[in-house]
Amino acid sequence: MIIADASPLILLAKLNMLDSMIKHSKHKLTIPEKVYGECTAKAGLFDAQIIAERVNSRLIEKREVSDKKFCNKLARDFNLGMGGPKLFAYA
Q1: Which one of 14, 20, 26, 77 has the minimum C-beta count within 10 Å?
Q2: Considering all CA atoms of the chain, what is the largest pairwise distance in Å, rounded to the nearest integer?
Q3: CA proximity to 35, closest of 51, 50, 46, 22
Q4: Whole-angstrom Cα distance, residue 44 to residue 76?
Q5: Rounded Cα–Cα distance for residues 6 and 45 (Å)
Q6: Angstrom distance (rounded) from CA 41 to CA 80
């Protein structure tokens, strides 16, 4: 499983490299719900549409993190938004 944060996904989509990365990866690309929300917050943007389409076609897997207590602690301790801690929860 490959876990991605919003910024790399958005940049890969903007550069038209997301599909190539998905195609050549040996592992499934997985993102937390929060990261998906960050990537698609501006639904009218090209990159947001690409990412949403890849999730809808199941090329990118979207998951909710079960350990919310751990995520909240990371967010507080390191002054982070919730996207980053949810990535660490998968690790």
Answers
A1: 26
A2: 37
A3: 51
A4: 32
A5: 14
A6: 18
Regions of the chain short of the pLDDT cut 70:
65-67, 70-75, 78-91
pLDDT of residue 2: 76
The pTM (predicted TM-score) of the whole model is 0.75
- Pair 70, 85: CB distance under 8 Å: yes
Q: Give the amino acid at 27.
A: H
The interaxial angle of helices 83-90 and 68-78, nearest 10 deg, is 130
Q: Which two tokens stand for residue 88?
A: 């660490």
Distance between CA atoms of residues 64 and 44, nearest Å: 24
Starting at the earlier edge strand, list the strands of the sheet with 29-32. 2-3, 29-32, 60-63
